[in-house]
Amino acid sequence: MAEVDYPASWYAATRDADTARAPLATQAEADVAVVGGGFAGLHVARLLAQKGKRVVLLERRRIGWGASGRNGGFVGPGYAQRSGALIDRLGLDRARQLYAQSQRGVAIVRDAISELGRPDILMGTGKLSVSRTDQGAGFADRTRRLAEQLGAAFEPWETSRVRAVLATERYHQAIHDPTSFHIHPLNFALALADDIERLGSVVHETTDAVEMTRDGSFWQVRAAHGAIKAPHVVLAGNADLGAVQPRLARAVLPVATYVAVTEKLGARLGEAIRWAGATSDTRRAGDYYRVVDGDRLLWGGRITTDTTEPRRLRELMRGDMLSVYPQLGNIDIAYAWPGIMGYAPHKMPQVGEVETGLWVCSAFGGHGVAQTAAGADAVAAGILGDPSRCHLFASFGTGWAGGAAGRAATQLAYWGLQMRDWWDEKRQAQNAETLRT
Ligand SMILES: Cc1cc2nc3c(=O)[nH]c(=O)nc-3n(C[C@H](O)[C@H](O)[C@H](O)COP(=O)(O)OP(=O)(O)OC[C@H]3O[C@@H](n4cnc5c(N)ncnc54)[C@H](O)[C@@H]3O)c2cc1C
């Protein structure tokens, strides 16, 4: 049975009772082999199992051990790449179709939670994307125009409305998306895995897929003590795919980010945050947070290509919380943990068939809870004979992400963007000060 345990997190501490699954120890046959037990692999497996396919899923550690079981839990449309950049690159029609596919991902997650009979996994509704600089008079019109272009439901909130629910002067206007919601991601992953088994497919844990070869019209995926022969293989390993397909493994850059959860804060949290939805700020690597367990603050933020955990992670996260809500005063951090996001250079997911019967569903970056379902839906439809939804992602390749040089370039770009965010805020604060004096 699986010997690997989950890293300490609030999610692991509040997860459903779960039984470790046996590693692969036979020569098995399947319609589809899936590598990776995060949301991407789980959704592909479940969507195909629902259509009667026999799927075998291999997970190196535990179900939801990677990004899927330790993220912020925000579920919403869009992608890691901004919609404006997608319109510029692809034109309005294609960008709108891609956005619609992400909305389909949101719907798949919402429907799955209800089909699984687990309303408790859905922890709150609505999301605010708040700006830390004043967006000026045209903000509302610009936001409405973009929503109309994309077929989106988001709407502008003026600063007074934002500050009525978030008691901080750091924030100005916001974009409110009523279709977003937030979940317990680890329990969702565990419930998806249970459902895959209920549908007659198989899930193995502590099974590292280390090699794959072509065998006529089949693929052989090998692990230490067994192998799977299948006409289709889906690689859903995020930034950690490893030796099983080195070229695709090199195409995804690992970027670390962090989450912390406070001890119970009592009434002072409700006075600072009078909003049951999720919140993130619009900086390039901004804060994202929500209230969980009644009066704990779950706070995510910071990104770095250095994937070693900072020694003073708890202090760093506490500092970030207090820089926005100093009125919270003394706060103790109960849990703090790192997670790895996988990014392709174009910041869009890699979704599609890269060779006959070899599919990829990966690189969802920091926007993956709904988007993995959107990608999985496209891949599952492709395997079932309808390639049209995979075509939406076809212009985003699976090329090399640059290795160590790519990591250094990404880190430099990130620092540059962070400086720009800092400078924008500082300049506005100085202007406001000059006007007051
Ligand atoms: C801290 C953090 C906060 C985030 N917050 C949000 C958020 O609030 N909202 C949002 O939309 N997105 C968020 N994201 C992003 C989101 O979590 C990811 O995009 C998404 O979970 C990726 O799912 P995945 O299945 O592709 O990858 P993962 O969940 O990482 O799963 C990949 C799995 O594949 C396994 N694996 C890899 N290679 C092999 C192999 N060779 N053999 C067997 N198994 C293998 C790994 O062990 C791993 O479990 C966040 C990410 C992080 C890290």
Report on the architecture of this protein:
- The model has no long low-confidence stretch (mean pLDDT 92).
- It is globular and about 70 Å long.
- It contains 13 helices and 19 strands.
- Helix content is 35%, strand content 25%.
- The strands form 3 sheets. Strands 4, 5, 6, 7, 13, 14, 15, 16 and 17 form a 9-stranded mixed sheet that branches.
- With 437 residues, it is an alpha/beta fold.
- The termini are far apart.
- 47% of the residues are buried.
- The protein has helices spanning 10-13, 39-50, 83-90, 92-115, 139-150, 159-165, 185-198, 246-250, 267-272, 313-324, 371-383, 388-391, 403-436; strands spanning 27-29, 32-35, 55-58, 74-75, 122-130, 155-157, 174-183, 202-204, 211-215, 218-223, 226-230, 232-235, 253-262, 278-281, 288-292, 296-304, 333-343, 350-355, 358-362.
- It has one domain (10-391): FAD/NAD(P)-binding domain.
- Bound molecules: flavin-adenine dinucleotide (FAD).
- Flavin-adenine dinucleotide binds at residues 35-41, 58-61, 65-68, 70-74, 208-209, 236-238, 240-242, 244, 257, 259, 288, 300, 339-341, 362, 364-369, 372.
Topology:
Elements: H1 10-13, E1 27-29, E2 32-35, H2 39-50, E3 55-58, E4 74-75, H3 83-90, H4 92-115, E5 122-130, H5 139-150, E6 155-157, H6 159-165, E7 174-183, H7 185-198, E8 202-204, E9 211-215, E10 218-223, E11 226-230, E12 232-235, H8 246-250, E13 253-262, H9 267-272, E14 278-281, E15 288-292, E16 296-304, H10 313-324, E17 333-343, E18 350-355, E19 358-362, H11 371-383, H12 388-391, H13 403-436
Parallel strand pairs: 1-11, 2-3, 2-12, 3-8, 5-14, 12-19
Antiparallel strand pairs: 4-7, 5-7, 6-7, 9-10, 10-11, 13-16, 13-17, 14-15, 15-16, 18-19
This protein binds flavin-adenine dinucleotide.
